[in-house]
Records
---
Amino acid sequence: MSWIAVCDVSQVQEDFPFSAKVNDNEIGIFLVDEQYYALEDICPHAYALLSQGFVEDGKVECPLHEAIFDIKTGKCLREPGSRDLKIYPTRINENRIEISFIEE
Ligand code: FES
């Protein structure tokens, strides 16, 4: 499995996910219960960055039409999200958050 460094751990807070473009993919890095999660950042319904949405209790609400997704699983919890989000493996390497593009 190959890993790609995305950001520093200090750049991600529970209320402020980190948005990055990695290999032409928009990725959102979220922090929930002291664990980092990497999700596709573009809402499947239309075009909005979920990392700019409202984060609460391990869920993110799309800023455009208020679909809700579970950050730990990517599961769509409220329409119009239309499908679950892709989620990518993460690891910490010397304070850098790395992701792999093999989907979980
Ligand atoms: S763009 Fe996210 S719910 Fe419509």
---
Amino acid sequence: MSAASHTVVIRGTGSYAPAKVVTNHDLSKTIETSDEWIVTRTGIRERRVAGRHEDPSDMAAEAGRAALKAAGLTPADIDAIIVATMTGDLPFPSTACLVQHKIGARKCTAFDLAAACSGFVYGLEVASSLIRAGVHRHVLLIGAEKLSSILNWQDRTTCVLFGDGAGAVILSRGEGPGARNSIIGIRTGADGEDAGLLYQHAGGSRHPATADSVAHGQHFLRMNGREVFKHAVLVMEKTATELLKEHGYTAADVECVIPHQANRRIIETMAERLEVPLDRFFINLDRYGNTSAASIPIALDEAARAGRLRPGGLVLLVAFGAGLTWGAALLRWPAGA
Ligand SMILES: CC(C)(COP(=O)(O)OP(=O)(O)OC[C@H]1O[C@@H](n2cnc3c(N)ncnc32)[C@H](O)[C@@H]1OP(=O)(O)O)[C@@H](O)C(=O)NCCC(=O)NCCS
């Protein structure tokens, strides 16, 4: 077997959500909003919010441990940890290094990946390429976010949409002649021209934290919701359709679609455009809101544990986020994952 032809198997999944639940009703006590408005416009009913001392690396470590357990591996087996996040614990070092220490995976490489809400699909592309090329045998890929730390809780146009959490998968080199590829194909893309639609103004090197930047709330997430909505619907459907076509499938072949969990209306519109019945979409945003890079891996783990992913069935992941970035992944769900 040549080094460039290793199969890639999804070996286990895990997720973690903070204990604290904040309902729409809770939010309506502090800002001018209502459960009815939020549910109608977004489908979100509640979200999880991490504790003051609960860092993304803590949530990522919990999700990672659960994925390791499901995969039947130990931290010593892991060759690489990739954490997709836009709310890492610190500007540096990477959250992946902190996770490495927390789970006791001593000798692996570790790095973060910045692609906002598309980070998990981008991470799948990187991790599966590393395994396929023979560089690594077992990769722990995690999406982890503490979006509550960059939200302006007085801004009703953004704070009602997001939540905290982490999800993880273990990708492994397939062993033996019977090993079947879990990753059929992945497509990712970006368009930096629209970077201003969803961003955090201060806190980076262009606008380092100052008393003034903090006083003006420049470290909070900013978004043009309507424009983001339009782009999301178009690009998610287009990317999914192109990916399916590239591999000789149609949307009708897909047994379960796991979309980025941002807004139920975005998902419903995508379902219509793809002509896939909504009941084939796995949706949990009502309980978590948008957890950015954590959203797809949390949903993937919940779908797997709920028996929604039939061994051998086609699973389609579709993501969209700041950057702008997007991506889709076509998986064949393994027996035993
Ligand atoms: C944010 C979003 C829910 C807003 O829905 P919308 O139907 O576009 O609503 P609008 O922005 O047009 O606002 C309509 C009205 O509701 C108000 N409003 C906004 N948020 C509100 C809230 N939480 N509660 C009550 N009213 C609210 C607005 O102020 C506006 O009032 P006005 O007409 O008096 O100015 C929607 O645009 C969206 O989901 N966008 C995509 C966001 C997203 O998913 N981002 C992440 C992508 S990874």
---
Amino acid sequence: MLDARINQDRLWRSHMAMAKIGATPGGGVGRLALTDLDKQARDLFVSWCREAGCEVRVDRLGNIFARRAGTDSGAAPVMTGSHLDTQPLGGRFDGIFGVLAGLEVVRALNDAGAATRRPLDIVVWTDEEGVRFRTGIMGSGVFCGLEKLEDALAKTDESGCGVAHELARIGYDGAEPVGGYPLHAYFEAHIEQGPVLEREGIAVGVVEGAQGSRRFRVTVEGEEGHAGTLPMTGRRDALLGAARMIHAINKVAFAHDPLPVITAGAIFVRPNSPNTVPGQAVFTIDSRHPDAATLAAIGEDMHAACAAIAKADNLALHFTQTSDSAPVAFDAACVDSVRAAALALGIAHRDIYSGAGHDACNLNHIAPTGMIFVPCEGGISHNEKENAKPEDLAAGCAVLLRVMAEWAES
Ligand SMILES: [Zn+2]
């Protein structure tokens, strides 16, 4: 088994061939879920899997499973994969690497004539990016029982075109039930989508889990007035108060170790006129941290900081939490396996938390799950400029091969 070797050139060529489908002028990929381009990408993947001797199944939500048989056909599979859909102006590697790394694992095992006890499944999850149907991580969410199939099939895009209709149109409305069977383990390879690994010159990130996130909507109420006639003293300027609050919540971030990420990303001002003192300002906060208790404390600290400013500036404050997603801790044995594989292969590695959500975060609810990160250039992702080095992709893939081979025997 361990004679099997990843073919770096073949893995890279597969990426470049896949990147032609929906290629953008800026060197990226635009391939929204369940479009004609998504169909072409799926068809190419399926043809490669059949060439590699896999049996391909499609479930009712269009999730694709390509199976390399094991010697024990009744055993629960070891699964790997990710997604082939992208952002409107996305990159060539986000999601695609996880799918093609799985394919390369199968091809490498085929080259070596190596058998595994458990079957190996390569999965393509439907609509991970959530752009077109305003969803997010949809296919794996339904597979893991976190969302209802009927709800997912009923989603529509801006033109009113539905998921069920589009699945049928592109020929990926499969017959298989969605989920409901045991997996022995799930591993997902992915680009980091952040700058840490590249900055440290490290090829593989051993992903311990994913940050939790809490989002807030902050409404600041003051009093509108004429910009020329209302004196500076005694004003109740809602935008000025919001600006002070945004500055204060940024300081809250730096009071915690390890650092959370806190972003005030959107602001709405009323009446939004150059010569009126703003009477209302509403802004959003996105806060993320890997530890649930710290994340909760950060929310309370931000609320207290905003309340103090509102009081001092004679403003009314409504501080509302709009979403709460708990941090994800991956299975300790899976994380250990990824670390041990990198060590055994002599690949530079470090532990890391995912800043973004992934299909693996859903799978973690139903099976022992681990993730493998590789660096991407400048940490840039969800962008046409997204790039990765062939040797880093191969290193991550080699770790994937090793952990899958190990778990396929256990
Ligand atoms: Zn992704």
